[in-house]
Design goal:
This protein has about 280 residues and is of the alpha/beta class. The protein is about 40% helix and about 20% strand. The chain starts with a strand and ends with a helix.
Length: about 280
């Protein structure tokens, strides 16, 4: 069965002042793909990921997502970013919010904004209807759930997700009260709460103590088994070998080699990749 194309990246470049970090990246990501990206420090891996979510504006090229080019400055990136989750090295949780509030903040905010937009539209429809005959009056938009219902639904989903990763008892805790591994698992749940089509992971275990790495990789492995589309910048070669269905090696701003995991690790073709793997395996 043919998979749906989720992201299509063509000739993506990124320059900081005179430093060319990405020199023309091409990558197609399909529904259910787990793409592991490896490479030496400073090769452009994290910059590439940040460009996909437009946390960095690409210098050139295109990122086609839902038939729109995210690299086009006219596109409302905030709309599309709702469907592109991101998990960072340093968790990026709000320390002044509880675990539950960290997870529900985005879905509640987005739902409130969408509801407010409909209310504004209804206001102008009502104004227009004043001067129209009954049969010509436009119907009002259904506002859907109340603010209270929106909040309750978001909290229920957050608790369901926390239960799935064994952290339901931490819902009322603050980030300072939980471990690094627990913070990263909460960060993953926060991304999931928006029902994303793809989640980007930027070295999600690099800031963790070794004993906490396993619990985060376990959650990611479970997501992969459930069919979540994932692009993962990682130093965890075991994860890349066992969980990813494609592995990409980036060096000096370009994709040097790409293959399925078994062939990638057993029979690397590029001399630079061979040298890299000899040092990390």
């Amino acid at each position: 069965m043919e998979k749906n194309l989720i992201l299509s990246v063509k000739n993506l470049t990124k320059t900081f002042d005179k430093l060319e970090v990405l020199k023309g990246i091409d990558l197609d990501v399909y529904e259910g793909d787990v793409v592991a990206i490896i490479g030496p420090s400073g090769c452009g891996k994290s910059t590439f990921l940040r460009c996909l979510n437009c946390l960095e504006d690409p210098t050139g090229g295109s990122i086609i997502f839902h038939n729109e080019d995210l690299a086009d400055m006219k596109v409302d990136i905030n709309v599309h970013r709702q469907k592109i989750g991101m998990v960072f090295q340093q968790f990026n949780l709000f320390n002044n919010l509880t675990v539950l509030d960290n997870i529900t903040l985005a879905p509640i905010t987005v739902a409130k904004k969408n509801r407010a937009k409909l209310k504004t539209k209804n206001f102008f429809i009502k104004l227009g209807n004043i001067f129209k005959k009954k049969e010509a009056k436009k119907p009002l938009y259904d506002l859907g759930k109340t603010i209270a219902e929106i909040k309750k639904d978001a909290e229920n989903k957050a608790l369901e997700l926390l239960t799935a990763i064994g952290l339901e008892d931490k819902a009322s805790s603050y980030p300072s009260q939980i471990s690094g591994g627990q913070k990263q698992r909460v960060a993953i749940v926060r991304a999931l709460a928006m029902n994303p089509d793809v989640i980007l992971f930027d070295e999600p275990t690099s800031a963790l103590d070794p004993e906490m790495v396993g619990e985060v990789l376990s959650v990611m492995t479970d997501l992969a088994k459930r069919g979540m589309t994932m692009i993962v910048v990682t130093h965890e070669m075991g994860f890349a070998r066992e969980v990813a269905n494609r592995v990409i090696f980036i060096d000096d701003g370009v994709i040097v080699e790409e293959n399925e995991p078994n062939e990638f690790f057993k029979n690397p073709k590029n001399p630079r990749l061979k040298d890299f793997l000899s040092k990390v395996l």
